[in-house]
């Protein structure tokens, strides 16, 4: 090959490279144009996320303070009452894998809107159709929350990538606020409505419908990152993905034990249902501070391992204090519990975002960690019910706290490392 030929080949290569760059630039411009409406109104998406997150716990935390009253009213056995606390959490895990499938077919924004309406339907069903409606509505509510919860980390990764930790803390704080409101006000609401537990539980359909109204504008937005469907391969073979999943599941197990059984534990120790509900509500309100602060602080270090150990230690201290310590110091232990659990959950969601290279991986890791994780988490409330029935008291439940908490710390030490899950993301 002579010198002139080599020059011609070199020129052709540079021309081809330039054409590829122009094509990539045009694609980037098109994506920016598609997502431009969202950029102009990020406050609208933020408001929508907050209102959606407010509805991801009331259907769960509103039942615990009324559990004994509901059981007496409908003649539920201890096993049926235990199933009522376990079933929604199990549905969180069983239905979570549907989220990315539905999002690829209809778009994440449309799915969130539709599932908010099914959540409202579940709340109505649970509070108006006796024992069958109670269990069917719990299934529908748990399934709805499981699907929406999977989609939110992917939306945050896509639209707030530079502030993922802070934004995760914001919507986690809203989630905790919804749980606290429901735990603390459901009993007073039922008393206000002539001691009707059905109206106390049914009240929470209102926030779900309000959230649907404010989320509606997102359906009309063009979110460029979801215009192309992606398949993520290799997630189930990745050890880091399983560590994130185990941490999510084990810390969630402690959270749903608190939502499902803490009021009953405190009532067994001598508190009234209203007092027990207020303690649960106060503890969850404290989560507002740590759910916002923990991800922000954890992302300032080289990794999240120390933060995970600290928040889990606070959680265990609070649980053991509520279970064994004198009631004179109960509020102090409830505060420790709230600080710990607000941090454990927000860090679990933050890990999904931080361990993912892009929004497609985040959505699939979210599905995996919440699907398998919540299925695992449902075993915690079930185990508490079984142990309570076997022993006739609550003291042995401390062993469950210790075993789950230790497992969460071990899984968190792996999940908290500054690594990415090793997967392949490809267009479908």
TrEMBL record:
The chain crosses the membrane at residues 43-60, 80-99, 111-129, 135-156, 168-190, 196-216, 240-262, 274-294, 306-327, 333-354, 361-384, 396-420. The keyword S-adenosyl-L-methionine does not apply. Keywords: Membrane, Transmembrane, Transmembrane helix. It comes from the Bacteria. Pfam families: MFS_1. This is CynX/NimT family MFS transporter.
């Amino acid at each position: 090959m002579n010198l002139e030929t080599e020059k011609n080949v070199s020129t052709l290569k540079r021309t081809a490279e330039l054409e590829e760059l122009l094509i990539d630039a045009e694609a980037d411009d098109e994506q920016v144009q598609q997502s431009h409406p969202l950029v102009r109104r990020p406050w609208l998406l933020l408001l929508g996320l907050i209102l959606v997150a407010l509805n991801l716990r009331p259907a769960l935390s509103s039942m615990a303070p009324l559990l004994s009253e509901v059981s007496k009213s409908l003649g539920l056995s201890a096993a049926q009452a235990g199933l009522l606390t376990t079933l929604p959490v199990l549905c969180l895990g069983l239905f979570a894998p549907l989220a990315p499938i539905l999002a690829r077919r209809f778009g994440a924004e449309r799915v969130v809107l539709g599932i908010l309406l099914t959540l409202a339907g579940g709340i109505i069903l649970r509070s108006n159709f006796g024992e069958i409606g109670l269990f069917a509505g719990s299934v529908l509510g748990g399934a709805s929350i499981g699907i929406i919860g999977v989609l939110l980390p992917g939306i945050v990764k896509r639209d707030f990538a530079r502030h993922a930790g802070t934004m995760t803390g914001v919507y986690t704080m809203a989630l905790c606020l919804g749980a606290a409101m429901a735990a603390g006000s459901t009993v007073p609401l039922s008393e206000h409505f002539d001691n009707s537990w059905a109206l106390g539980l049914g009240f929470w359909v209102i926030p779900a419908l309000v959230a649907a109204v404010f989320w509606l504008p997102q359906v009309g937005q063009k979110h460029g990152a979801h215009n192309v469907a992606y398949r993520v391969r290799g997630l189930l073979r990745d050890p880091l993905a399983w560590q994130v999943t185990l941490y999510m599941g084990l810390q969630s197990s402690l959270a749903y034990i608190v939502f499902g059984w803490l009021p009953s534990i405190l009532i067994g120790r001598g508190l009234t249902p209203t007092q027990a509900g207020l303690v649960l509500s106060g503890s969850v309100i404290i989560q507002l501070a740590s759910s916002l602060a923990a991800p922000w602080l954890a992302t300032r270090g080289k990794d999240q391992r120390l933060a995970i150990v600290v928040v889990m230690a606070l959680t265990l201290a609070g649980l053991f204090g509520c279970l064994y310590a004198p009631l004179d110091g109960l509020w102090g232990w409830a505060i420790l519990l709230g600080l710990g659990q607000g941090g454990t959950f927000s860090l679990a969601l933050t890990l999904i975002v931080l361990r993912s290279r892009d929004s497609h991986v985040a959505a699939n890791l979210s599905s995996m960690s919440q699907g398998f994780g919540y299925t695992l988490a449902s075993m915690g409330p079930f185990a508490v019910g079984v142990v309570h029935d076997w022993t006739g008291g609550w003291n042995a439940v401390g062993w469950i706290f210790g075993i789950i908490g230790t497992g969460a710390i071990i899984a968190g030490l792996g999940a908290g490392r500054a690594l990415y899950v090793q997967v392949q993301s490809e267009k479908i």
